[in-house]
Amino acid sequence: MSERAGAAVEITTADVRDLLADRRIFPELPEDLRDDTELVLDSMGLVWLLHQVRLRFGLTVDPDEEDFAEFGSVERIAAYLRRAAARAA
């Protein structure tokens, strides 16, 4: 499901930054995380992030190994999720 109340999902960089703000999961990320700051997410962090995307946005994402580079910054994560939502619509 990639729609929320009949509207297509539009995941923003602010949404991604909010998901990454959980210090229990991402303790090393700075609070003033910029959109283009390079990120290295471990497997647990990536699984948690994708689970939260499914819960909050109703979007199930199952990235292939070659997609992992798309999780290297807030900006790239948001763009990847928007593309995934458009494909799922």
TrEMBL record:
Determine the domain of life of the protein's source.
Answer: Bacteria
Q: Which SUPFAM superfamilies match?
A: ACP-like
Q: Where is the Carrier domain?
A: 7-85
Q: Which residues cross the membrane?
A: none
For this protein, the record's InterPro entries field holds: ACP-like_sf, PP-bd_ACP
Protein known as: Phosphopantetheine attachment site
